[in-house]
Amino acid sequence: MCYDVSFTVNIKQLSDYFPDLIFDDQIEINFEAAIHVVGHAYGNHPIIYVSRDDLKLHCRLMEWGVIPFWIKDESAYLRQRATMLNARSERILGDEKSYWYKIRNRRCLIPVSGIYEHRAIKGWKKKVPYFIKSINEQIIFLPGLYSVVELPDKETGELIKRYTYTLITRAANKVMSQIHNDGENSFRMPLFLPFELSKKWLQEDLSNDEFKAILDYELPSEDLEYYPVYTIRSAKERPDNKLKNEYYEWDKLPALGEMNP
């Protein structure tokens, strides 16, 4: 699955891809923190979607990790929320009992400059993180689904409308299978799309065949750039003082596909 992303571009650059995009007033981004966005922090991320109020394209902050619209007590739902960070593409149309099927028409895009994924190596105690980005585009627009829920403010009790989202994953391509090669959700990757398909994902009039074709799309391995980085899930400073998403040379790191667990 995918729980670690990076967004290191000026948010106004989104207008280069979507000229009519409306930015909501509440958008503020800490770009130092955005170099590594962790799903389990349930933090805010700029999300592109078609507003149901004016049917125009908006960008607003939404929380990563869907909260279903029927939830009344957020604290009781917290443990389950970890399972709502990602949505398997196979369930969106294929499982009519799933929440993803219920919100299948609440489609959105998650702009990232890249993602992090961990590789297990036989004989190594710790996994090696990799940074993965597009060879062709500075920004990847990952497809997702969003949900809206009203929950009481913890201090005032006033009902507040909360926007939350999930990131869609699919079976990994060859190179992502070699990187994400271990764990409960191994051999998965985000549903990477070329930009034209990302735009199509937001169309209100998608037919079932078009919908399924997008969910079934597999980005070729050669369209991805990838390299190892230093440990990302630690407060420990990088010994070379470089940024989290920059290349790091691990001693005796075997080539991809070798020494799998």
TrEMBL record:
InterPro entries: SRAP (IPR003738), SRAP-like (IPR036590)
Positions of transmembrane segments: none
UniProt KW keywords: Covalent protein-DNA linkage, DNA damage, DNA-binding, Hydrolase, Lyase, Protease
UniProt KW DNA damage keyword: yes
Leader sequence segment: none
Enzyme class of the recorded protein, top EC level: hydrolase
One Pfam entry name: SRAP
Enzyme Commission number: 3.4.-.-
Keyword flag Flavoprotein: no
Gene3D superfamilies: SOS response associated peptidase-like
One example GO MF annotation: peptidase activity
BP GO annotations: protein-DNA covalent cross-linking repair; proteolysis
Annotated family: Belongs to the SOS response-associated peptidase family.
Name the record gives this protein: Putative SOS response-associated peptidase YedK
